Amino acid sequence: MFRKSSIICCLMAILLICSGCSPTQQSTFDKDMRRVVFVSPQKELPVWVQAKSGFMDAARDYGFQAEWLGSEDCDLDEMTRQISIAIAEEVDAIITCPLTPGVFDQVFSQAKEKGIPVITVAVDASSPELRSAFISPDYQEIGRNQAAALHEAVGGVMKIGVIMSTIDSQNQIIQLNELERYIQDLDGSEIVAYGQDFANPTTGMYVFSEMLEQHPEINAVFVTSGDAVSNYGTILAGKGLQDSVVLIGMDAVEENIQAILNGEIYGVMDQDYYQMGYYSGEFAFKILSGETVSDVTFCDSMLVTKENVQQIMDVK
Amino acid sequence: MKQRSIQKQLPHLVLATVIIMGVFAAAVVFGWSRSARRYSVIVAQSSAFTQLSNGINQAYVDLDCYIQNPDDASLEKYNISMQSAAEAAAEIKRDAQVQDIYYAIVGIENMLSEANRINLEIIDRLDLNSFNDIYSLLSESQTLLTYMNLRVAAVNTLQNEWMQQQLTSTTEWIQRLVFLLIPLLILILCTLLFFSLRIARRIILPIQQISAQANRLAAGDLSVEDIPDQSLLEFSMIAQSLNKMKSELSVMIEKIREQSNIAARLHETELENLRISNDLKNTELRIMQAQINPHFLYNTLNSIGRLAYSAGDHQVVQLIEALSDMLRYNLNHIERSITLREELENLKNYMYIQKTRFGDKLTFQIQTNSRRMNLRMPCLTLQPIVENAIVHGLSPYNYEGNIEVDVMDEDQWTLVRIHDDGVGMEPSDIEKMVSGAFEASCQSVKHTSIGFCNVKTRLNSFFDKQDCVTVRSELGEGTTVVLKLYCEKGGQNV
Questions:
Q1: Which residue(s) pair with B367 in the sheet?
Q2: B339-365 pLDDT, tens digit each
Q3: Rounded to whole angstroms, what are the CA distances from A292 to A36, A58, A114?
Q4: Do B166 and A13 touch (CB under 8 A)?
Q5: Mean pLDDT, to the nearest integer, of A203-232?
Q6: Of chain A's two ends, which shows fewer C-beta atoms within 10 Å, N or C?
């Protein structure tokens, strides 16, 4: 009797104690970690969300406090202000994508004065002196491959329309330069129109639609931004031009992949943003730890078309 | 059966109850205190954020006041505000449970420290005549204020999300606790009830069994079965004691009953002996009465006999001899046993006298086929029976009839059958005669002769048997009395 009662008492005590132990959050994290801030141009954009994943994974692997900041739609003032705040907060390292490098010179200089290392991603600072490392896809290679793929898909003389986020976006200028270099040797091929979508899909649809209206000879579209690519495919399909106009855009995000599968666009140049985010965090930590890192590091990129889109879908 | 003691079981149940309820109460108190602590932390954090924000902005208000009117009071207020903000930041940092909030506060602390450094420099370099020296510092400080407010607002958003999450999780946890504790409480109560009822049943059932058994024992019913062995030690002891008591009581009562029977038999024997003794005394008395002067009568009869012999009347002589022999027999043997032969001789004398009296109306036959003529028997047993036959059986026929006496041997006894062809008796009269009631109602017999009942009692007593005399009779068919004389009386009788 007593033994049974004792067992029942113990079981009940365990149950009750378990019930009494709520999942109270205790501050079990390390309070002496380095603080690294990533100021992204579009913090909610899918490609930058991929970069965020890489950055956070690096923070977890290397043990630093990662803070993901940035603007919603490539607002350079917002980005520089966030960097200034980070400097005032005396963070240990800053990672950013200076879309227009000159705009960031002042804050990069302030950071340098404070001894805060700056790592640039995708777009480099105006001067290598202002940053500690640069991690990016190789936009020369991307532009070259994108132009060659476009030419191969058109199969002849290309009348090209170019759409960029902004015409002063450095990495996109590099891509554009490669396109221009590529078509120099092609008889009859030329860029017939330029447009800016300001990383805004609605704006991009208007710009692209106008471009096609004004230049019906366009048979190839070279897009260096990734924000409105799927919308461009919608416009091509709407105009019945998806078979006669070859469009290669940027970034293998879900909407763009769907547009490829639908046959609305030919393909996209995929940049490994996750890798870029991870490397940036890793390099920041290594710099803070006194290690030497590469000044410039290129991430992987590839052309995604209907032929290999399934492979990308499996990976992502 | 494994036996346990109530003395142990009850404290165990109480102990188990106390432990369970104690643990339950501890869990509830523990749970509620945790909730209270969590609410307290949430409220404290919220309050600290407000204090931080207010402290920062109040410090800048105080700084403006000081710049416009530099006095110690404003400076003191500024310092207090900055101190308040710094303390709030430290408190938030200390209690921060979210990593992002902690490190954001680290940044705000850094900004606050830098802003304070700049502000103190502004205060130090303040010259009311020229603001140019401090303008850039003021601008930088204002920028920091803006940044701090932005960051506090951003962190406050994080904090609010965390608080919301904490409140939600705490509320959910309380609900879970309640949902867990209520069934648990019911389970505990049911378990306790179960064990209480079990123990109560283990106590009540034996009590009922034992009390029922005790009631039956108290009512004198010793045939009840033994109380079965009990699982509880105390009841087992009581049951064993009762069973033992019942068993000993049975033995004792059996002994008392046997002793009572013995005493009753003894008493009966004593009564019988007393009655026999009484009968003997009565007999002696009657004999004594009859022997008012037996020697005188005897001597007188001898004198009459000599006169009759001298006169030649031989019949009278024989009659007197017979009477004198009877008298001598009665006088000499009344208190002793005699032989069957002597008793038959005495009977013949009596028959001769009666024959002389009644003449040919009355006939006697004695058939003796016994070789046990020396068989010892009580004196005066045959003559009273024959006398009864004459007085009661033949007197209604004016003493006309026949009386037969047959003596015959059987294996273990010798039968003496006395038969008369008189009026006979009804069964009720036989019963009266055997029991002595008949003699009691017949006063003449009572005072002059030895009654049938007397004969029967003496014979039974002599042979220590109860069947020495039997009577058969029917109205108009006469009466037959059979005396059974046992051969053995300690092997000395034959």
A1: B406
A2: 999 999 999 999 988 888 888 889 999
A3: 17, 17, 20
A4: no
A5: 94
A6: C
- Mean pLDDT throughout B152-174? 86
Q: Which residues of A touch B176 (CB under 8 A)?
A: 19
pLDDT at site B446: 44
Going B136 to B138 to B141 to B147, the CA torsion angle's sign is negative
Please check whether residue B302 lies inside any domain of the structure: no
Higher-confidence position of B340 and B293: B340
Residues of B in contact with A9 (CB under 8 A): 16, 19-20, 23
Q: Which residue has the higher pLDDT, A26 or B106?
A: B106
Comparing C-alpha atoms, which of B442, B425, B421, B306 is closest to residue B362? B421
A194: amino acid identity, one letter: Y
Average pLDDT over residues A121-141: 93
Q: Quick one: pLDDT at residue B286?
A: 65
A-B CB pairs within 8 A amount to 114
Q: Is residue B240 part of a domain?
A: no
**What is the rounded average pLDDT of the residues B187-209?**
82
Count the Cβ atoms, other than its own, within 10 Å of residue B231.
Answer: 14
Evaluate whether ipTM surpasses 0.85: no
Lowest mean pLDDT among A172-181, A212-221, A263-272, B28-37: B28-37
For the residues A174-191, what does the mean pLDDT come to?
Answer: 94
Could you list the beta-strand ranges (E) of A92-184.
93-96, 118-121, 133-137, 159-164
As beta bridge partners, residue A36 has: A66, A93
Q: What is the pLDDT of residue B453?
A: 83
Residue among A8, A19, A65 minimizing CB distance to B103: A65
- Looking at every residue in chain B, the average pLDDT score rounds to 84
Q: Which of A71-75, A213-217, A248-252 has the lowest mean pLDDT?
A: A71-75
B368: contact with A, CB 8 A cutoff: no
DSSP letter, residue B484: E
- Using a CB-CB distance cutoff of 8 angstroms, which residues of chain A are in contact with residue B114? 88, 90
Task: Examine the pLDDT at B42 and tell me if it is beyond 80.
Answer: yes
Q: What confidence category does residue B287 fall into, taking pLDDT thresholds of 50, 70 and 90?
A: low
Number of domains in chain B: 2
Nearest one of B79, B103, B90, B88 to B54, comparing CA atoms: B88
What's the rounded Cα separation, in Å, for the pair B318 and B316?
Answer: 5
Residues 6+ apart with CB under 8 A from A258: A230
Q: Is residue B342 part of a domain?
A: no
| Of B164, B188, B209, the domain-final residue | B209
Q: What is the b/e burial string over A46-58, where b = at least 16 CB atoms within 10 angstroms of the residue's CB?
A: bbbbbbbebbbbb
Domains of chain A: 35-137+273-300 (3.40.50.2300), 139-271+305-315 (3.40.50.2300)
Contact flag A89-B20 (C-beta cutoff 8 Å): no
Q: Which amino acid is at A313?
A: M
Q: Which amino acid is at B22?
A: G
The reply to whether residue B31 touches residue A88, judged by beta carbons under 8 angstroms, is no
> Does the residue B273 lie in any domain?
no
* 3-class secondary-structure state, position A173: helix
Q: Determine the residue type at A239.
A: K
CATH number of domain containing B95: 1.20.120.1730
Q: Where does a domain end: B144, B178, B209? A: B209
User: A276, A103, A100: which is closest to A172 by C-alpha?
Assistant: A100
Which range of residues forms the domain containing residue B448? 359-494
* Interface test mutation site (partner A, options B5, B9, B99, max chain A beta carbons within 10 A): B99
Q: What is the pLDDT of residue A293?
A: 94
The enclosing domain of B400 has a CATH number of 3.30.565.10
Average pLDDT over residues B419-435: 86
Confidence (pLDDT) at A16: 56
Which runs of consecutive H residues, i.e. helices, occur in B219-293? 233-290
